[in-house]
Write a structure and sequence with these properties.
Length: about 170
């Protein structure tokens, strides 16, 4: 795991594309889908003229300033070092619980779920930001407080096998 989940700075994200689920841990700003809309929202707020293009602040987002089904493969390739398995996430949260919380049970804290197959961006992010408002045309952005209502169980299947000691 290149980056540890450290809410609210780094987040856990689930992406569904062509029926396949992929988990990531990275900086939260990488997951603002429409950087142009975000830029123009700030411009409107401060009575500045809107722009028709914007530049990504992160190398991973270059050429993907508006993240959509058209460029998700390019973005996923750029994000491969942030990819994790669900097993790694469980292991991380269990270890964190043992070391810092006296074994109090934790679940994997997912911040965003991007469903490219159905063009839906789910945000579970409770901090200010309204990430669900900055989605491409044709997408729905939804804020949902209960991640359990949205994340499919088959997205949680472990990629690596766990050996059992007898």
């Amino acid at each position: 795991m290149k980056v540890e989940p450290n809410f609210p700075d780094t987040v856990v994200v689930l992406v569904k594309h062509e029926g396949k689920y992929t988990w990531y841990v990275s900086e939260k700003e990488l997951w603002i889908m429409d950087l142009l809309e975000l830029d123009n929202a700030f411009r409107r707020k401060f009575n500045q003229p809107e722009v028709t293009e914007t530049k990504a602040d992160y190398e991973e987002r270059e050429g993907c300033e508006i993240l959509s089904e058209k460029n998700i493969a390019q973005f996923q390739d750029a994000m491969k070092e942030y990819k994790v398995s669900y097993t790694e996430l469980i292991d991380y949260f269990n270890l964190y619980s043992e070391v810092y919380l006296d074994g109090v049970s934790l679940t994997v804290e997912t911040s965003f779920y991007l469903d490219f197959d159905n063009k839906i961006f789910y945000s579970f992010f409770k901090e200010p930001g309204s990430y669900e408002q900055f989605v491409p045309t044709g997408w729905r952005g939804i804020f949902e407080e209960d991640v359990r209502k949205v994340i499919p169980e088959n997205a949680k299947r472990n990629i690596r096998k766990i050996a059992l000691d007898f």
